[in-house]
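step: validate -> pass
step: tokenize input -> pass
step: predict -> running
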Amino acid sequence: MAKTPTGEESRLEPFRTELTGYCYRMLGSGFDAEDAVQETLLRAWRSFDRYDERRASLRTWLYSIATNVCLDMLRSARRRALAMDLGPAAEAGSGIGRPAAESVWVQPVPDALVLPPDGDPEELAVLRETIRLAFVAALQHLPPRQRAVLILRDVLRWKAEEVATLLETTVASVTSALQRARSTLRAVGTGSGEPFRPSDPAQRELLARYCAAFERHDVTTLVALLHEDATMSMPPFVWWLRGRDRIRRVLLAPDASCEGARLVPVAANGSPAFWQTRPGPDGAHVPFGLVVLDIAGGLVVDSTTYLGADRLLPLFGASMGSPLATANASG
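step: predict -> pass
step: emit ->
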């Protein structure tokens, strides 16, 4: 974004993180969310002299601009999805096929881009839940305006009157759209994972055991930590698996060995997440994939590994830290 005058910049910039979270839920891509917020703040800066605080708060005005930006971006876009939305589960040994375009996928997002660093713990728990991959993928099933209504009402807790004003419609229309959106989400489902609690001893123990088994390439222990109906996918490939036995067969395949790889915690999608690293030519470990897990009942229920870390690293920045790493360090 072009450099703004200090006074305007100081008023607009504090909204960047929450606007990025809103745009991420709307668009399903951290890259697109950043672009949308840049465009939002640029439009706000250009028209700041016309902003009338008697008509709307600065926050409402910015959300109105962001909503219009997102609706414009979604006008010609196809629905982003996870592998499970694109076709049936594969058989182990069937090959992973060809990669799909980046625009097909719900993309990951770093927590730092969309979650307030000093938010209320209870509020943060809710916000983490609503950036989980499965929840964001479910949102993509909604028409764009219904999506905006549900996010504003159920995630951000706006009043119906506020949403109606923002969308230039009636309260009755907002209420109807919210009911339809909720019905669709119930039908689609938002995944079986439980909320991620970085300081929870049971969750921390599960993830520590999972990482240790992975780094030892101990397939027996690794598979024992999976739910019987666990799923595994590797965007950008449409291929995915369901079931502990199928995943075991793939992990044991000679050409699927991850020996020498490590899992380094990173804060992504309000979920347990890790950079999967391998030693480079100089022996130093470098990320080659981003692993995002869902856990429930003391087991891993889903593993999504985004290949192509070189594309994701600039979005995440230099930090390799995560709430899990902080919790482990303090525990």
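step: describe -> Residues 323-331 have pLDDT under 50 and may be disordered.
step: cleanup -> pass
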